[in-house]
TrEMBL record:
InterPro entries named in the record: MULE_transposase_dom (IPR018289)
Name of the molecule in the record: MULE transposase domain-containing protein
Domain MULE transposase per the UniProt entry, residue ranges: 52-147
Length: 161
């Protein structure tokens, strides 16, 4: 079923990139990962967004659990602009590396030309550093504030902002 969906995406969105990874477990082919990068998002990001990319992952809570990884830009109106997304089995260094390699190649990211903003997700910090060594990588202020709150330093940080 996912192969059909991937084929429809490719057919209806020329020059878009759709990658899927499956593995055989016995006689059953099991879904692992699905990456989508629409050509319209590629052109929109190149022509109208700042060289800042937000990276995030969230849990998919359904009959088919997993993680949704996303990359978004900031357009001229200061709105989020979707760049690429992936549905993956879990969130770790290997999977963030897989996602970042596609993103680097698809966006033609050069070392040091772009900035990434994220929280401290499992494996993401090392994946960005390994895949795009010269890139700037910063943390979202909201996540930093939440980490300070966990250590009972929230009021101190809030007063500094």
């Amino acid at each position: 079923m996912l192969e059909s969906y991937a084929a429809v995406l490719r057919e209806t969105n020329p020059n878009s990139i759709v990658k899927m990874k499956t593995e055989m477990e016995g006689d059953i082919r099991k879904f692992k990962r699905f990456y989508v990068y629409f050509d319209s998002c590629k052109r929109g990001w190149r022509e109208g967004c700042r060289p800042v990319i937000g990276l995030d992952g969230c849990h998919i809570k359904s009959n088919y659990p997993g993680q949704l990884l996303s990359a978004v830009g900031i357009d001229a109106n200061n709105d989020m602009f979707p760049i690429a997304y992936a549905i993956v089995e879990l969130e770790n260094y290997e999977i963030w590396t897989w996602f970042m390699e596609f993103l680097r190649d698809d966006l033609k990211i050069q070392n040091g030309n772009d900035m990434f903003i994220s929280n401290k997700q499992k494996g993401l910090l090392d994946a960005v550093a390994d895949v795009i060594p010269g890139a700037e990588h910063r943390h979202c202020v909201r996540h930093l504030h939440n980490n300070f709150k966990k250590k009972n330093l929230g009021a101190v940080l809030k007063n500094l902002l």
